[in-house]
TrEMBL record:
EC assignment: 2.7.13.3
PANTHER family tied to this protein: PAC DOMAIN-CONTAINING PROTEIN (PTHR43304:SF1), PHYTOCHROME-LIKE PROTEIN CPH1 (PTHR43304)
Catalytic activity: ATP + protein L-histidine = ADP + protein N-phospho-L-histidine
GO molecular function: kinase activity
SUPFAM superfamilies from the UniProt entry: ATPase domain of HSP90 chaperone/DNA topoisomerase II/histidine kinase, PYP-like sensor domain (PAS domain)
Domain named Histidine kinase: residues: 418-631
Native source organism of the sequence: Leptospira vanthielii
Keyword entries, A-Z: Kinase, Phosphoprotein, Transferase
Gene3D superfamilies for the chain: Histidine kinase-like ATPase, C-terminal domain, PAS domain
Domain PAC: 220-272, 346-400
Protein name stated in the entry: histidine kinase
Amino acid sequence: MESFNQNTPSSFVLFADKLPFGVFVFESPTLEFSLESKLVYANPLAKSFIEFHSGIERQLTVKELLPNLQKEGLLSHILSDITKKNGSPIYLNAELLSDQKSNCRKVYSLLAKQLTDNCFFFLFEDVTELSFAEKTFRENESQLDRVLKTMINGVVVVNLKGQIIYANDSAAKILSLSIDKIENKYFASKDWRQIREDGNPFPAEELPLTLALGEQKTVYNCEHGIIADGEKVKWLSVNASPLYNAEGKLEGATASFLDITEFKNTQNTIQLKNRKLKAILDAIERSAIVSVTDTKGIIQRVNKKFIQISGYSEKELLDSDHRKLNSKFHPKEFWEKMWKDILSGHPWEGIIRNQSKQGNFFWLQTFIHPLYDKNDSIESFLSIRFDITEEVEALENTNRMLHFTGIQNSRLQNFAYIVSHNIRQHSSNFTSLITLLEENPSEEERKNIVNMLHASAEKLNETITHLNDIISINQMLNKPMEICSINSEVQKTLNILKGSIESRNIEVFLEIENHLELKIIPVYLESILLNLVSNAIKYVRLKNGAFIRISAKKKPGQVQLTVEDNGLGIDLEKHGNKIFGMFKTFHKNEDARGIGLFITKSQVEVLGGTISVQSTAGLGSTFTVFLPENPNESAPV
């Protein structure tokens, strides 16, 4: 086959031989392009595409050259498009260009064009690489589209004018709009209001996409509200970034955003609750005594009121424990129960007496609450306290007044009984003697009656003296209290009674704690010791081996005084309820008047203390007195 006949321009041949794609030129026997058109030229690259059968000298027709395209009905379609101005290429695999099956995976494009009135040409190009690249692109594009559709983030893409050219499903869902109402709109459109947190408009020049397009910078986590189509405000967290083409030229921008409305509402709720909580804590700080300790009781924080009432500086309090303020009023069991409760996670409430650095006592209504860490384990304790010292002291004074009133009533009853019984008895005796005297007996009888009148007068005077002793208790109540040394007061008492102790060969044992002191009305302590020790001396029963043991020791908030003897003792089963009664005696002792123990008990109770006795007839007695270590400055009337 010739490269071309004489009618074909040589310039075309020279041009076609150098083309980078295959060229086949066909000549039609008529002015219509048919399947019988014969091949008149093929450039070198075209010959490599199509295998020509050797030994065939005649010119091949279109259908003979491409039989598989003929079978598929493609040739007629290609020829009918030759005269069209904008014909499109078709894509063929290698098998369609050959008679034989091939494992070749090459892809070709075929484009048919008219050359002259009766000539046309086919252009063949190997587009295998381009085809695979396009396929990969399409696959990536499809995957990207699937990713964008399934993203929780809303995504939009805008062009250089700010027009939205793409929006994913999440964007439509977040904005409560359909995609067709988002695409083709401008992101800065007034159709949707974009606002700040305070409700003011969000400036267009500060919007993330504006910055991405204008300043070509990436913006992260910009928060603003958006209101579209009258919907409620949606709060968005927006990231925006510029988009560049293959040449690095800006062609648009993309934005991804999350709906943070619920988070924002929750955050606002939390902030509101935090403000309320802060107001409550501020009120507590101003009105309450506050501290925080770790689980071992070490102080980590104190407020100003705590510092003021404790008398210690903040530096002295921090890293110490509350034992610094312990007044030693509460027993060990009290603290053990408190710690057991709070370490179990239970809030604790109670009243605690503390002692300041200056030694003053104060009472606190206390509330202790456990504080937990992120693992729900107790990490510290919050203590909130209120100073109720005045209330407690007022209550104590009231109780003391009631107590003293009861004592005074009892004393008044006794006093009335004595007046009605003893003095009436003396009066009756006087009346009887005077009546006898008026009956003019003999001189001797008159003398006897006068002697009896003198004896009755002495008894009446003694009774009145005892009543004066009782009344004197009330007169001493308002005397000021002083710090007294127990050992000194005991020695003073023993010196007063030294003659009686030595004359009866009584051995005295002292068991008094060193430096033991007591805040008390001194004359009361002297009277109590004198009555108890003189009673022990009075009822000694042994000429040898008689003893008196005086002991004193400190108890929580109290001082215990004990006077023990091995004298006559008392039958408590018979006389137990009468021991501290007025004018009660239990032995035929001529010195006994039955007034000492009554006065002692009255004085002890006035001081807020207690007195008790243990005794066995013939073996001895033990009197035990408990007195408050630090009572009020003076006992109330």
